[in-house]
User: Fold this.
Amino acid sequence: MNYLYYKSELGNFGDDINPWLWPKIIPETPTNKDTYFLGIGSILHAENRHFHNIENKKKIIFGTGIRPSNTYNKFALDKNWEVSFLRGPLSAKYLGNSYEYITDAAYAVRQLNSFADIQNTEKKYEISIMPYFNSMKYFDWEKIAKNLGYHFISPYSEKGVEHTLREIAASKYLISEAMHGAILADVLRVPWHRFVLTTPYTEGERVSDFKWNDWMESIDIFSPDTSFIPFYKKTKLHDPIRRLTRNMVSANFFVKGHVQGKLIKSLNNISNYSLSNDSLISIVDSRIHAKIDDFNFVK
Assistant:
Protein backbone atom coordinates (compact mmCIF):
# COMPACT_ATOMS: atom_id res chain seq x y z
CA MET A 1 0.00 0.00 0.00
CA ASN A 2 1.30 3.44 -0.89
CA TYR A 3 0.43 6.09 1.70
CA LEU A 4 -0.01 9.54 0.25
CA TYR A 5 0.28 12.43 2.71
CA TYR A 6 2.08 15.73 3.21
CA LYS A 7 5.67 15.32 4.35
CA SER A 8 7.43 18.12 6.21
CA GLU A 9 11.22 18.07 6.31
CA LEU A 10 11.18 18.88 10.03
CA GLY A 11 8.24 16.62 10.79
CA ASN A 12 4.59 17.37 11.49
CA PHE A 13 2.68 15.31 14.04
CA GLY A 14 -0.67 15.09 12.24
CA ASP A 15 0.74 14.09 8.88
CA ASP A 16 3.33 11.74 10.38
CA ILE A 17 0.61 9.66 12.02
CA ASN A 18 -0.08 8.19 8.56
CA PRO A 19 2.98 5.94 8.11
CA TRP A 20 2.82 4.98 11.79
CA LEU A 21 -0.90 4.11 11.94
CA TRP A 22 -2.00 2.56 8.66
CA PRO A 23 0.51 -0.34 8.49
CA LYS A 24 -0.83 -1.44 11.88
CA ILE A 25 -4.40 -1.85 10.60
CA ILE A 26 -3.94 -2.25 6.83
CA PRO A 27 -1.90 -5.27 5.74
CA GLU A 28 0.21 -5.24 2.61
CA THR A 29 -1.21 -7.64 0.04
CA PRO A 30 -0.48 -8.36 -3.64
CA THR A 31 -3.80 -6.72 -4.55
CA ASN A 32 -3.09 -3.34 -2.98
CA LYS A 33 0.60 -2.80 -3.74
CA ASP A 34 -0.29 -0.40 -6.58
CA THR A 35 -3.02 1.36 -4.61
CA TYR A 36 -2.59 4.82 -3.11
CA PHE A 37 -4.19 5.38 0.28
CA LEU A 38 -5.09 8.89 1.44
CA GLY A 39 -5.86 9.13 5.13
CA ILE A 40 -4.99 11.98 7.49
CA GLY A 41 -4.55 15.39 5.93
CA SER A 42 -6.10 18.16 3.83
CA ILE A 43 -4.56 17.06 0.56
CA LEU A 44 -7.58 16.89 -1.73
CA HIS A 45 -7.00 19.84 -4.03
CA ALA A 46 -6.37 20.37 -7.74
CA GLU A 47 -2.85 21.75 -7.20
CA ASN A 48 -1.57 18.61 -5.50
CA ARG A 49 1.21 17.68 -7.92
CA HIS A 50 1.34 14.09 -6.68
CA PHE A 51 -2.02 13.35 -8.28
CA HIS A 52 -0.67 14.09 -11.75
CA ASN A 53 1.83 11.26 -11.46
CA ILE A 54 -0.76 8.66 -10.44
CA GLU A 55 -3.74 9.65 -12.59
CA ASN A 56 -4.39 6.07 -13.70
CA LYS A 57 -3.73 4.45 -10.34
CA LYS A 58 -6.39 3.44 -7.83
CA LYS A 59 -6.69 5.96 -5.02
CA ILE A 60 -8.65 5.40 -1.79
CA ILE A 61 -9.92 8.31 0.31
CA PHE A 62 -10.25 7.33 3.97
CA GLY A 63 -11.26 10.36 6.03
CA THR A 64 -9.17 12.84 4.04
CA GLY A 65 -10.19 16.49 3.78
CA ILE A 66 -10.57 19.02 1.00
CA ARG A 67 -8.11 21.90 0.92
CA PRO A 68 -9.89 24.92 -0.60
CA SER A 69 -8.06 26.43 -3.54
CA ASN A 70 -7.58 30.03 -4.60
CA THR A 71 -7.57 29.01 -8.26
CA TYR A 72 -10.36 28.13 -10.62
CA ASN A 73 -9.23 24.50 -10.85
CA LYS A 74 -11.87 22.62 -8.92
CA PHE A 75 -10.86 19.28 -7.48
CA ALA A 76 -12.88 16.46 -9.00
CA LEU A 77 -12.93 12.67 -8.82
CA ASP A 78 -12.93 10.14 -11.64
CA LYS A 79 -13.28 6.35 -11.87
CA ASN A 80 -9.83 5.83 -10.37
CA TRP A 81 -10.94 7.28 -7.03
CA GLU A 82 -12.69 5.26 -4.34
CA VAL A 83 -14.21 7.19 -1.45
CA SER A 84 -14.64 5.33 1.80
CA PHE A 85 -15.54 8.52 3.68
CA LEU A 86 -14.55 12.18 3.87
CA ARG A 87 -13.42 14.19 6.87
CA GLY A 88 -16.41 16.46 7.31
CA PRO A 89 -19.51 18.20 5.93
CA LEU A 90 -17.56 20.99 4.22
CA SER A 91 -15.50 18.47 2.24
CA ALA A 92 -18.68 16.57 1.39
CA LYS A 93 -20.41 19.76 0.23
CA TYR A 94 -17.40 20.70 -1.92
CA LEU A 95 -17.81 17.39 -3.75
CA GLY A 96 -21.52 17.90 -4.27
CA ASN A 97 -22.62 15.85 -1.24
CA SER A 98 -22.06 12.75 -3.35
CA TYR A 99 -20.01 11.00 -0.65
CA GLU A 100 -20.49 10.43 3.05
CA TYR A 101 -18.36 11.88 5.78
CA ILE A 102 -17.60 10.59 9.26
CA THR A 103 -14.79 12.68 10.74
CA ASP A 104 -11.01 13.04 10.48
CA ALA A 105 -9.16 9.82 9.72
CA ALA A 106 -7.06 10.25 12.87
CA TYR A 107 -9.97 8.85 14.88
CA ALA A 108 -8.90 5.47 13.48
CA VAL A 109 -6.19 5.59 16.17
CA ARG A 110 -8.98 4.41 18.47
CA GLN A 111 -9.07 1.12 16.50
CA LEU A 112 -5.56 0.14 17.60
CA ASN A 113 -5.15 -2.73 20.03
CA SER A 114 -2.79 -0.50 22.01
CA PHE A 115 -5.20 2.44 22.18
CA ALA A 116 -6.50 1.79 25.71
CA ASP A 117 -2.94 1.56 27.01
CA ILE A 118 -2.02 4.87 25.35
CA GLN A 119 -5.21 6.59 26.50
CA ASN A 120 -4.65 5.44 30.08
CA THR A 121 -1.20 7.02 30.31
CA GLU A 122 -0.81 8.50 33.78
CA LYS A 123 -1.68 12.20 33.95
CA LYS A 124 1.46 14.26 34.52
CA TYR A 125 0.60 17.71 33.18
CA GLU A 126 -2.23 20.05 34.14
CA ILE A 127 -2.09 22.00 30.87
CA SER A 128 -0.01 21.32 27.76
CA ILE A 129 0.48 23.52 24.72
CA MET A 130 1.15 22.54 21.10
CA PRO A 131 1.83 25.26 18.50
CA TYR A 132 1.37 24.83 14.75
CA PHE A 133 4.54 23.39 13.21
CA ASN A 134 5.06 26.49 11.05
CA SER A 135 4.94 28.67 14.18
CA MET A 136 7.96 27.01 15.73
CA LYS A 137 10.51 29.25 14.01
CA TYR A 138 9.11 32.46 15.44
CA PHE A 139 9.33 31.86 19.19
CA ASP A 140 11.03 29.86 21.90
CA TRP A 141 7.94 27.81 22.70
CA GLU A 142 9.54 25.82 25.50
CA LYS A 143 10.36 29.09 27.26
CA ILE A 144 6.85 30.43 26.66
CA ALA A 145 5.33 27.22 28.07
CA LYS A 146 7.60 27.42 31.12
CA ASN A 147 6.63 31.03 31.74
CA LEU A 148 2.98 30.03 31.64
CA GLY A 149 3.49 27.00 33.84
CA TYR A 150 2.43 24.73 30.97
CA HIS A 151 4.00 21.65 29.43
CA PHE A 152 5.31 22.04 25.88
CA ILE A 153 4.51 19.34 23.29
CA SER A 154 6.43 19.62 20.04
CA PRO A 155 4.40 19.51 16.80
CA TYR A 156 7.49 18.08 15.09
CA SER A 157 6.98 14.83 17.01
CA GLU A 158 10.74 14.23 17.04
CA LYS A 159 10.46 11.36 19.51
CA GLY A 160 7.84 9.55 17.48
CA VAL A 161 4.08 9.52 17.08
CA GLU A 162 3.36 7.27 20.05
CA HIS A 163 5.47 9.46 22.33
CA THR A 164 3.46 12.51 21.28
CA LEU A 165 0.19 10.66 21.75
CA ARG A 166 1.23 9.71 25.27
CA GLU A 167 2.26 13.30 26.00
CA ILE A 168 -1.26 14.44 25.03
CA ALA A 169 -2.84 11.60 27.01
CA ALA A 170 -0.75 12.59 30.04
CA SER A 171 -2.26 16.09 29.92
CA LYS A 172 -5.46 17.12 31.69
CA TYR A 173 -6.00 19.88 29.10
CA LEU A 174 -4.41 20.81 25.78
CA ILE A 175 -4.14 24.28 24.24
CA SER A 176 -3.36 23.77 20.57
CA GLU A 177 -2.72 25.82 17.46
CA ALA A 178 -2.06 22.56 15.60
CA MET A 179 -5.35 21.09 14.38
CA HIS A 180 -4.22 17.50 14.86
CA GLY A 181 -3.08 18.35 18.34
CA ALA A 182 -6.71 19.20 19.10
CA ILE A 183 -8.01 16.22 17.10
CA LEU A 184 -5.84 13.69 18.92
CA ALA A 185 -6.74 15.33 22.22
CA ASP A 186 -10.38 14.70 21.33
CA VAL A 187 -9.51 11.15 20.27
CA LEU A 188 -7.85 10.61 23.66
CA ARG A 189 -10.71 12.41 25.49
CA VAL A 190 -8.54 15.31 26.63
CA PRO A 191 -10.40 18.66 26.63
CA TRP A 192 -8.81 21.08 24.15
CA HIS A 193 -8.77 24.78 23.31
CA ARG A 194 -7.82 26.25 19.93
CA PHE A 195 -5.64 29.31 19.56
CA VAL A 196 -4.93 31.11 16.31
CA LEU A 197 -1.58 32.85 15.74
CA THR A 198 0.33 32.27 12.50
CA THR A 199 -2.02 29.97 10.55
CA PRO A 200 -3.89 32.79 8.75
CA TYR A 201 -0.51 33.80 7.29
CA THR A 202 1.44 30.54 6.99
CA GLU A 203 -1.34 28.49 5.37
CA GLY A 204 -4.02 31.08 4.63
CA GLU A 205 -7.00 32.14 6.72
CA ARG A 206 -9.50 30.52 4.35
CA VAL A 207 -7.62 27.21 4.39
CA SER A 208 -7.15 27.13 8.15
CA ASP A 209 -10.77 27.92 9.03
CA PHE A 210 -12.10 25.51 6.40
CA LYS A 211 -10.03 22.64 7.82
CA TRP A 212 -10.92 23.30 11.44
CA ASN A 213 -14.63 23.84 10.76
CA ASP A 214 -14.79 20.76 8.52
CA TRP A 215 -13.49 18.64 11.39
CA MET A 216 -15.33 20.35 14.25
CA GLU A 217 -18.71 20.25 12.53
CA SER A 218 -18.22 16.52 11.92
CA ILE A 219 -18.19 16.00 15.70
CA ASP A 220 -20.98 18.51 16.41
CA ILE A 221 -18.80 21.27 17.81
CA PHE A 222 -19.86 24.67 16.53
CA SER A 223 -18.22 28.01 17.35
CA PRO A 224 -16.08 26.83 20.28
CA ASP A 225 -14.20 29.35 22.40
CA THR A 226 -11.03 30.22 20.47
CA SER A 227 -8.14 32.53 21.34
CA PHE A 228 -7.10 34.82 18.48
CA ILE A 229 -3.68 36.47 18.84
CA PRO A 230 -2.74 39.14 16.25
CA PHE A 231 0.49 38.04 14.59
CA TYR A 232 1.20 41.40 12.97
CA LYS A 233 1.13 44.84 14.54
CA LYS A 234 -1.11 47.14 12.53
CA THR A 235 0.36 50.62 11.92
CA LYS A 236 -1.51 53.84 11.21
CA LEU A 237 -0.23 53.70 7.64
CA HIS A 238 -1.74 50.27 6.94
CA ASP A 239 -5.18 51.28 5.66
CA PRO A 240 -4.01 54.28 3.52
CA ILE A 241 -1.23 52.19 1.94
CA ARG A 242 -3.60 49.31 1.21
CA ARG A 243 -6.00 51.73 -0.51
CA LEU A 244 -3.27 53.47 -2.52
CA THR A 245 -1.75 50.17 -3.68
CA ARG A 246 -5.09 48.40 -4.24
CA ASN A 247 -4.32 45.92 -1.47
CA MET A 248 -0.95 44.97 -2.93
CA VAL A 249 1.22 46.38 -0.12
CA SER A 250 0.78 45.99 3.63
CA ALA A 251 2.01 48.15 6.47
CA ASN A 252 1.65 45.43 9.06
CA PHE A 253 4.83 44.34 10.78
CA PHE A 254 5.84 41.37 12.89
CA VAL A 255 7.20 42.70 16.18
CA LYS A 256 8.32 39.65 18.12
CA GLY A 257 8.25 41.16 21.61
CA HIS A 258 4.86 42.76 21.03
CA VAL A 259 3.30 39.55 19.70
CA GLN A 260 4.87 37.35 22.36
CA GLY A 261 3.50 39.57 25.10
CA LYS A 262 -0.03 39.32 23.71
CA LEU A 263 0.41 35.58 23.20
CA ILE A 264 1.40 34.94 26.80
CA LYS A 265 -1.35 37.17 28.14
CA SER A 266 -3.99 35.47 25.99
CA LEU A 267 -2.92 31.89 26.73
CA ASN A 268 -2.70 32.63 30.44
CA ASN A 269 -6.41 33.40 30.64
CA ILE A 270 -7.99 30.30 29.10
CA SER A 271 -10.75 28.66 31.08
CA ASN A 272 -13.07 27.13 28.48
CA TYR A 273 -12.20 23.87 26.74
CA SER A 274 -14.03 21.71 24.19
CA LEU A 275 -14.62 17.97 23.94
CA SER A 276 -16.98 16.02 21.73
CA ASN A 277 -19.74 13.91 23.24
CA ASP A 278 -18.81 10.37 24.29
CA SER A 279 -21.90 8.90 22.65
CA LEU A 280 -21.02 10.54 19.33
CA ILE A 281 -17.48 9.15 19.49
CA SER A 282 -18.93 5.71 20.12
CA ILE A 283 -20.86 6.06 16.84
CA VAL A 284 -17.69 7.29 15.09
CA ASP A 285 -15.84 4.22 16.36
CA SER A 286 -18.51 1.90 15.00
CA ARG A 287 -18.63 3.60 11.62
CA ILE A 288 -14.86 3.62 11.15
CA HIS A 289 -14.66 0.01 12.29
CA ALA A 290 -17.25 -0.88 9.65
CA LYS A 291 -15.30 0.98 6.99
CA ILE A 292 -12.17 -0.97 7.86
CA ASP A 293 -14.15 -4.19 7.60
CA ASP A 294 -15.52 -3.05 4.22
CA PHE A 295 -11.97 -3.07 2.89
CA ASN A 296 -11.39 -6.50 4.45
CA PHE A 297 -8.50 -5.05 6.37
CA VAL A 298 -7.12 -7.20 9.15
CA LYS A 299 -6.41 -5.31 12.35
